[in-house]
């Protein structure tokens, strides 16, 4: 039986909305272009587990967005033990081929985890990642694993095991998965929660939650709605992610409660201690 990781650091690789900040055309919106924390790549989260009795690390990725290559390079990521998908939309999946180098270097497939619906869409769009295409000599790089709401998955690695629990979320007309690790919850691309998920919103130390923009959106929480949910859930710390070009880092910081922070690319959180590191 694998020993659990003694420390787990969550790194926000990207916290931008589907077009990133700035958007193509050098569109910064209300964001101050001189503030480095306003430059946002597409949403992705890295979990890194460590143990005192090992020099190795366990690494788990949530979503493979369009900017994945640059995100992995910026954070010196060399291997991946597993990848989890919140859902199948393009801004969360289209960096999937950048897993190839790590799979080939390790000489084994990387396990990826998704819902039945997301799995069908992802494997249809990127079938060559899962099977060798006809008349192709390239080996598959990924192994598909279907996961269910509320059933924890244990990822083993050199830095100890990391347990992730899929939490069902509403995202407009579809559902997505949030992922809970101890008292830490990552809720990207969410417009609400079914009542069955309320128990997973209790007693959170850190909650990273979607707050897309100021105006209403049919499939995302806007800033006001996210703050309402935070007031209702009462996590010790909340971090707003999936931020559009109308949400300036310093402006959000000035107008939200002390326990609420705007995410930025490279932000780190100690999952077990339940605190923001930088």
UniProtKB/TrEMBL annotation:
Molecular function GO terms recorded: hydrolase activity
Keywords assigned: Hydrolase
Protein name per UniProt: Metal-dependent hydrolases of the beta-lactamase superfamily I PhnP protein
Start and end residues of each Metallo-beta-lactamase domain: 58-241
Pfam family for this entry, one: Lactamase_B_2
